Amino acid sequence: MMKTALITGVTGQDGSFLAEFLLEKGYEVHGTIRRSSVDYRERIAHLEGLPHFHLHYADMGDSMSLLQVVGKVRPDEIYNLAAQSHVQVSFDSPEFTADVDATGVLRVLEAVRLCGLAATCRIYQASTSELYGKVEEVPQNENTPFHPYSPYAVAKLYGYWIVKEYREAYGMFCCSGILFNHESERRGETFVTRKITLAAARIRQGKQEKLYLGNLSSLRDWGYAKDYVECMWLILQNDKPEDFVIATGVQHSVRDFCRLAFHYVGIELEFSGEGENEKGVDKATGKVLVEVSSDFYRPTDVVNLWGDPSKAREQLGWNPVKTSFEQLVKIMVDADMEKVALERASDRIRTNLAEYLEKGIVK
Ligand code: NAP
Ligand code: GDD
Predict the structure, then answer these.
(1) Residue 191 Cα, ligand 2 centroid: separation in angstroms?
(2) Model pLDDT for residues 32-90, shown as the tens digit of each residue
(3) Residue 363: what pLDDT?
(4) Residues 6+ apart with CB under 8 A from 23
(5) For ligand 1, is residue 182 a contact (CB within 6 Å)?
(6) Disulfide-capable partner of 147 in 120, 133, 171, 186 (CB 3.0 to 4.6 Å)?
(7) Looking at residues 256-267, what average pLDDT do you find?
(8) This model's pTM is above 0.90
C-alpha cells in the first residue's frame, strides 16, 4: 500500500527536498501552500503536475484550514515544517512568530486528534538547535539543557514541549528532530550561508562591490539539507517515538564559511581588525570585499552551536557526514555562480533587445 504524507511548508528549503525524497520512496505526497499575490513556488515548480504530488491551501495560523486538509488527506505521516524560520525576523515579528511556530504546532496536533487519527498518524516536528541558545554545554546532545535566546527559539521550545505532551498524554507517535543548521543551493537568500555564496558569485562576476555581514565569529554546525530530510523520515520509521539531535558534529565560524566560499570563486580573503572594524580583503588586489555592519547584529545572538549526532547514528543508522562542509560550500557556490551567470546573460539579452528596438533593427 502506498503511504500518504502531508508536508506543511512544502515550498521551503526542507519541504522541497523532503517532497522529492518521499516521492522517490513511493509516497503519495500532499503539501500545504499559502495564498500569495505572486505565485512564487520556485523550489517545487518541477514537482507540480506529477500524479502523486498534491497541493492544498492552509495556514499555520488558521485552525480550520489545517483541520480541513488533515481531514481530507488523512495522512499516515505528517511532517510539520511550516514556520517563520528566520531568527532575526522573529525580533521584529515576535507575536506572528509565536502564533505560527508555537500555537501552529498545537493546531496540527489537535487537527490530527479531532480527525480521529491520533492512533494511526505519525508526526514529525521541525525542532531546532536554537533551543540550546545561550549554550550550557558544548557539544549539544538530546540531554543538554535548553536556553532559548530569541523569540523564534522560545516559540520553538513550546512546539517541542507540546509534542512531548501529546506523546505522553495521548500516546501519539509524535517526535521532534532537533536539527542543527542545514543549508543548500535552495536556502533562503537572507540566511548567512546563502547570503555569502550569492555575494561571492556576484562579486566574482562584477555584479556586486561588497558584502556586509554581522557577527563573523558566530559558530555553527552546518550540514546539507538534502541529507537531513532523510533523517526526518527515519525518525518516523523508528519503532518508538523519540526525539533526535541531527547535526554533523563539525563546527565552523561565519568567517570560515566566508573564506572558503570566496576561495571557491577564486578570491583569497584575508581578515583583519576586530568587531565592527573587521574587514575581509582580497589578497590579490587589496580591495575590501567584506565589512561588518551592526544592522545584522541581533539583540541576543546564539554563537556556539555544535551538535552531537551519536544517537541518530547509532539508533537510526544515519550518516552525519555524507556531505562534508567543504562539499556543501562548493555545491552552494557552484549553483550561485551559474545563477549569476544566467542573470548576466539575460541582462545582456534585454539590453541588446532594447537597443535593437530603439534602432528599428527588430520590431
Ligand atoms: P523555510 O525555507 O523558511 O521554509 C518555511 C516554510 O514554512 C515555507 O514553505 C513557508 O511558506 C512556510 N510557512 C511560513 N509561515 C507559514 C504559515 N503561517 N502558514 C503556512 N506555512 C508557512 O525553512 P526551512 O529552512 O525549510 O526549515 C523548515 C523547518 O525546519 C522550519 O520549521 C524551521 O524553523 C526548521 N528548522 C530549520 C533549520 C535549518 O537550518 N534550515 C534548522 C532547524 C529547524 P512560504 O514559502 O509561503 O513562505
Ligand atoms: N542571517 C544573517 N545575516 N546571519 C548573520 C549575518 C548576516 O548578515 N552575519 C552574521 N550572521 C550570524 C548570525 O548572527 C548567526 O549567529 C549566524 O550567522 C547564523 O545565522 P542564520 O544563517 O540567519 O541562521 P540561524 O542560525 O540564526 O538560524 C537558522 O538555523 C536554525 C538552527 O540552528 C534558521 O534556519 C533557523 O530556522 C534554524 O532553527
Answers:
(1) 6
(2) 999 999 888 999 999 999 999 999 999 999 999 999 999 999 999 999 999 999 999 99
(3) 80
(4) 29, 47, 50, 52, 53
(5) yes
(6) 133
(7) 98
(8) yes
Residue with cell 521551503: 12
Is residue 147 a contact partner of residue 133, using CB atoms and an 8 Å limit? yes
Catalytic site residue 152?
yes
Rounded to an integer, the average pLDDT of 288-293 is: 98
How much of the chain, in percent, has pLDDT values that exceed 90? 98
Q: Is 130 a catalytic residue?
A: yes
- Which amino acid, residue 47? L
Grid cell, residue 287, equals: 580591495
Cα gap 320→331, rounded to integer Å: 17
31 lines ligand 1 (CB under 6 A): no
d(CA 81, CA 65): 16
**121 Cβ partners below 8 Å, 6+ apart?**
74, 75, 76, 77, 78, 112, 172, 173
Indicate the pLDDT class of residue 17, thresholds 50, 70 and 90.
very high
Does any ligand 2 atom lie closer than 6 A to the CB of residue 218? yes
- Among residues 20, 130, 185, 230, the one annotated as catalytic is 130
**pLDDT confidence bin for 224, thresholds 50/70/90:** very high
For residue 216, the one-letter residue type is: L
* pLDDT tens digits along 88-146: 999 999 999 999 999 999 999 999 999 999 999 999 999 999 999 999 999 999 999 99
| Whole-angstrom distance, CA of residue 64 vs CA of residue 349 | 48
To 5 degrees, how large is the angle CA 144–CA 149–CA 154?
A: 85
